[in-house]
Amino acid sequence: MEMINIQSLNGKWKIKPDPYGDGDEEEWWWTGHSDREWTEIDIPSHWQEESLPDYEGIVWYRVLFDIQDDFKEELGPRILLRLNGIFYYTEIWLNNEYLGEHDGYFDTFEFDITNLLDERNNLLSLKVSCYDEKNINKKSQMTGVFSHWDASDPNFNPGGIWGDVELVKKGPLYIKDLSINTKIIDEDSRTGKLDLLFNINSLITDETDIDIKIEPRNFEGNSRNKNLKVDLKPGDNLIKEEIIIQNSRFWWTHDHGFPHLYDLRITTNMKGKKLDAIRTFFGIKELELKKRGGWQFYLNKKRIFIKGSNYAPQNHRIAFAVKEDYEEEVDMMVEANFNMIRIHAHIDKKDLHEITSEKGILVWQDLPLQWYYKKSILDSALNQTEKAVKQLKNYPSQGVWCCHNEPFKFPTKEENYKIIGALIGSIIMVLGLGFLFSYINLFNVSLSYVISALIGVGMFFLISIVLELVPTALLIYNWNKNVLDKKLKKLILTLDPDHPVVKASGLPGKTDFHWYDGWYFNAGKYWKAKKFSNRLLKKLVPFITEYGAQSFPKIKNFKKFGIEIAWPFSQDTWEELKENFRCQPKIFQKIFKIENYESLKEFIDATQEYQAKALKYHNELWRRMRYNNTGGAICFLFNDCAPIISWSIIDFWGTPKKAFDEVKLSFEPLYSFLKIWPRKYKKKSLFKNTLLLVNDDLTDHNDIRIGFMIIKQNKKIFQKQYIKNIGPDELIEIEDIQIQLEEVGDYRIEINLKHDERVIKNKYEFQIS
């Protein structure tokens, strides 16, 4: 019989909700407590999907298990209980013994249960809690977008045991807490350095051999071996080792090279017997962020322009996300010419990090902090941040850490009442001081009220800062961004000094930029974003990580929502789309004149066409501003985590919207486009524009053939051919174009770029009226 090191405890468990918190007092964890009337549930899962729809709060889990015969073979001296993901807070008992507690949904945690196991009828009991937090400005659960977001299922609570539960055999010593850091020592000779840091937990005092083996994973090359002899003491033994790798291959994003990976195997042997081994992989890379002329990223000492999108959870019901779905999505990212994704305010399954490492996509990793939290979260946030960094830092794709997404308060009724109260109090102070100053003849009447008004304004701002009200909390001070995020950044830099850390995302003028021209601002007029190219406003856009517009999924998938979809929508339908599917009807109705669309399909196509144009416009704008002042563009949003109406370019079923093709086109590494988007011109006006060529590659390109045409009713009004050379990582102006257009009508511009047997076709439409 083959010896195995893991016994799965997945399968049928028992579950019971505890809405009134009776379980502790009634000892639901106790072996003598009957669970005969409890409901069965499959693990891993979420309780709302299996047994308890609409429930939030405390749920108890129990499972009775035996030690399997094949697991008992040559039992090691230690057995661990490993839990690979629970939403959100849990307490654990085994055979009536309390093991401990844990908060945080994303990390794996373990307990040594060696002395608590019986061969038969072991009872594992868990008390799990996950709440719908009603006060969104005082959240205490670090669940990020899984609990509070405008692009998730608004009716779903992710509570439950979503990861595998298993028993793990370990010998008298085992390896843990592996940390990998890489450096490029010399580019020309391709010399890399690998720094390893790990613990060996031992029960004994003895000498052990540690074998370290490194071999190429996805390319041909030589393997490397190193042997260490270490004297171990009981407890944790910290091991540090530096390995120089000559003639190494660096990890690159797919658009700038190949993501070379190495397998790493560390084995412990004592007196000729293998006691433990771990196997993982790494890539040799460096990523640096320089803040000059905007944010500029340097990968392996080469500047690269960042292109990508925000990534939602692969599935809001994360227990059901599978590796094949991640692989399909990352393949689509590569197809769309992304070199970075921003994992938006959550930590996803490890599969995503493994696949992005293999495919050559950098990761901007947000911590699961979304909007505002109460001060009591600090200790838990620090603890979970440390776990997040240790869990993800070794992946070659890990690029940027971000502590918090938009640490702002929402203008709830409670907040609005506070603002009104502060205003009324300030006005009363102004009137009172003005009367007092004039009454005692300190100043004349006019000056008295001017001075008191200035004091009142100052008092309003002081009250706003103390109470962290919305106006000042955004730009001046709030505890989340000024205390919490600052502490988290300091911790991450201590744990992982090799990767850039952003304190908080979306702070205007201070960090990366979020802006939605064409949607939240200037609805229907995405071209208003051109203002950011002027000398003053461009300083706000050193790096942009959110922009976009909502659109409906294709009609075949929209019908899967299971609602009444008679066209035109009734007010009740619009309200249902808003409440249950994240649609924003007021903005749709402002952009699209509903009465102009004869069918639902026509309307849906129009929403997708608008989104596609908006994203293409913005992508071209940011590329035109490359390094002056913008170092990259990450649009919002790549995917949907539930059946919703959102900013995604891939819907919940993996079907691309029209915007996918336009994003792919406008992110082409070698791309020709116009400096100014043509829209409308008056009759006999002069068409003036500049033809641009951009090269994101790290190599130059010669003999690029570019054809420029203006077409009206399939007739070429103007055409010109160019042959151009361009250097690496460069933007050039090809020519200023001026043409007198006489006739009224619809026109089309086509720009065809030919190079290395590829043809990149770009087009614009405009009118003369």
At the fold tier of CATH, the topology name of the largest domain is: TIM Barrel
Summarize model confidence as the mean pLDDT: 92
Q: How many structural units, i.e. domains?
A: 5
Q: Uncertain runs with pLDDT below 50, 5 residues or more?
A: none
**Strand percent estimate:** 25-35%
CATH hierarchy class name of the largest domain: Alpha Beta
Give the % helix: 10-25%
How would a crystallographer describe the biggest sheet? 6 strands, antiparallel
Shape: globular
CATH superfamily of the largest domain: Glycosidases
Contiguous helical run count: 14
Order of neighbouring strands in the sheet with most strands: 3-2-4-10-7-8
Summarize the structure in words:
The protein is of the alpha+beta class and 769 residues long. The protein has five domains: 6-170, Galactose-binding domain-like (Jelly Rolls, Sandwich); 173-282, Sandwich (Immunoglobulin-like); 287-366 and 512-666, TIM Barrel; 413-475, no CATH class; 670-768, Sandwich (Immunoglobulin-like), CATH 2.60.40. The strands form ten sheets. It has a six-stranded antiparallel beta sheet, with no helix packed on it. A six-stranded parallel beta sheet has the order 27-26-25-24-23-30. Strand 7 (89-94) and strand 8 (97-103) form a beta hairpin. Helix 3 runs parallel beside helix 4 (350-359), helix 6 runs antiparallel to helix 7 and helix 13 runs parallel beside helix 14 (658-666). The longest helix is centred in the middle third of the chain and has 27 residues, at 413-439. The termini are far apart. The model has no long low-confidence stretch (mean pLDDT 92).
